[in-house]
Amino acid sequence: MDELFYELFDGMPRLGPGADEATMKALNKVYKNNGEKKVLDIGCGTGAQTLLLAKNIRGKIIALDNYQPFLDQIESKTVKEELKARIKCVCMDMKNIVCKHASLDIVWGEGSIYIVGFSKGLKMVYPLMKDKAYVVFSDMNYLKDDPPAELVQFLKEECPDIITIEENIDLIEKSPFKLIDHFKLKKKDHWNPYYKPLEKRVEEYSKKYRDNSEALSISSSIQYEIDMYKKYSDYYGYVFYIMQKP
Predict the structure, then answer these.
(1) What is the dihedral of CA 177, 178, 183, 185, to 10 degrees?
(2) CA atoms within 13 A on the CB side of 189
(3) Cα-based distances in Å from 107 to 47, 100, 148, 176
């Protein structure tokens, strides 16, 4: 079942909403070409943001994901783009991160922190970070009050910890971290790099596995996710949060 799921995303430019422009906007808040840094990119997927970070930060990027084929793709890209010495790929569940305490200058979690939850994610990375180090998470939030019942039910299953931007900011303010900035990911950066090519992949995948009920169940659930965004994109989306450890 896992292999069927991952196959659906094979060849996708990104494994979730995002854009180079948004990554760079966040990066410019935490890095000013100020020396070598040690960076941890958790839940890196196939490395769209990982490679961009490596091109713009002097130092070492630890690319962490629990699916080795994704890391193999990053390894292949690092050779082509001459970034092999800058990126170290580690196959590990983010819930079990092993890293020297107080060693990280930047922690990056773009579209992945939902796996452990935003609050737990902050607690998880805090002891791994140097003083005055930065953490950047992008997470899904409600963007409006009173979202439609159909959307609430969908997100209750897909993203049970989803809250509003205001609630997320309150959560940060109650944590040891200082909020530096936050911004919403543009709608086009949900659609063009992710949902649009994903919908095409779903169509191709469904044709390939037209007689496989497990595969069709997967493609049907992904298509429903795409349909939800088409209908309700005003109500939810990804938000970047840039924070600093005191």
Answers:
(1) -20
(2) 16
(3) 15, 13, 34, 15
In sign, the C-alpha dihedral spanning 217, 69, 197, 159 is positive
The two tokens of residue 122 are 């902050």
Give the pLDDT of residue 100: 79
Structure tokens at 119: 């609050």
Place of tokens 């909403």: 17
Asked whether 232 and 152 are in contact (CB, 8 A), the reply is no
Buried b (16+ CB within 10 A) or exposed e, 8-17: bbeebebbbb
Q: Are 40 and 101 in contact (CB under 8 A)?
A: no
E-assigned strands of the chain? 37-42, 59-65, 87-91, 104-110, 129-142, 163-164, 178-184, 236-244
> How far apart are the C-alpha atoms of 207 and 89, rounded to whole Å?
34
In contact, 199 and 229? CB cutoff 8 Å: no
pLDDT at 16 (0 to 100): 94
Instruction: Specify burial of residue 32 (Cβ count, 10 A radius: 0-12, 13-18, 19+).
Output: exposed
First to last CA, the chain: 43
> What does R_g of the chain's alpha carbons equal in angstroms?
18
What is the percent of the chain where pLDDT is above 70?
A: 100
CATH 3.40.50.450 holds for 17-150+161-186+236-244: no
What pTM value is reported for the model?
0.95
